[in-house]
Write a structure and sequence with these properties.
279 residues; alpha/beta; Trna Endonuclease, Chain: A, domain 1; globular
Length: 279
């Protein structure tokens, strides 16, 4: 709502500026016509008025279209998640999937799955499809990315190699998420697919040994991965899809609990530590 208010303010400012300049320009042309009495000046004044009206109309249409898209996207997003939940990148991915035609009731965002030891596993996105369950891990990075499927730590390089950061292998991270979901759904014997989506201005410079059923993809190509997964795998039978949905919905509901969120962040920091810079 705040963004829409800002856009409306911008429209009013543009309108005011155009009106000020329009009055000044028309005043100048009126003066020119009065003093010079040139018939061609009348045509110039009319043409100038049309141009100003046309520019203003174009701006109004453009801004109105932006407002309409934001309102439409916000309504669409609400069919799955809240507009302030998770990261912007995660919400953008939800919108991509919805616009692609994935039913809202099969998309689960920002899950906190309770493990048997009482801790929680936070999962960015889960989608139930006809070929199995797709689990997404969303990363927002810049720089060059280096890593291997078998290495626990990956590296991102910034500032032309002057800064290097370590971060936990996203393949292993998402595989652990899948393992926790499988424990909850082991009675259904369902296939799982891991998709790590990279947002931001990053380049997968040297990434190797990607396990079968795992995909690393930049955000602009994530729908291609969806098509590949569906094309290359056979449909599965859900013996009790309602129970699968119930478990995933419960994990989403857990994410609304602030105490659970705080405890999960503390557990992760205790286990892995924060990303650190090294020479």
């Amino acid at each position: 709502m705040k963004k829409i208010s800002k856009i409306i303010v911008v429209i009013l400012i543009v309108f005011t500026v155009l009106k000020i300049y329009e009055s000044r320009i028309l005043y100048a042309t009126d003066y020119y016509i009065t003093t010079v009495s040139n018939p061609k000046a009348h045509t110039f004044q009319q043409t100038l008025s049309y141009i100003i009206i046309g520019v203003f109309g174009g701006i109004i249409l453009l801004v109105s279209s932006m407002i309409f898209r934001k309102i439409r996207d916000k309504k669409l997003l609400k069919t799955v998640t809240k507009s302030n939940r998770g990261t912007w990148s995660e919400r953008d991915l939800v919108l991509k999937l919805l616009k692609y035609g994935i039913p809202a009731q099969t998309i689960f965002h920002d899950l906190y799955l309770k493990k048997y030891n009482g801790d929680f596993s936070q999962i960015d996105l889960v989608v139930i499809t006809e070929v199995g369950i797709i689990v997404f891990e969303v990363k927002d990075y810049s720089g060059w990315i280096f890593g291997s499927g078998s290495q626990s730590q990956w590296t991102k390089i910034l500032a032309y190699g002057k800064q290097k950061y370590r971060f936990y292998n996203p393949i292993m991270q998402n595989n652990r998420h899948i393992e926790e979901i499988e424990k909850q759904l082991k009675q259904f014997n369902l296939p799982f697919y891991s998709v790590v989506v990279f947002y931001g201005n990053c380049i997968l410079k040297d990434v190797s040994f990607i396990p079968n059923g795992t995909f690393l993809v930049k955000s602009r190509r994530v729908l291609e991965v969806m098509r590949v997964i569906k094309k290359n795998n056979e449909p599965v039978q859900y013996s009790n899809e309602n129970e699968v949905v119930r478990i995933l919905k419960e994990a989403v509901k857990n994410g609304e609990n602030k105490e659970i969120q705080i405890q999960h962040i503390k557990n992760v920091n205790d286990m892995l530590g924060k990303d650190s810079i090294f020479d």
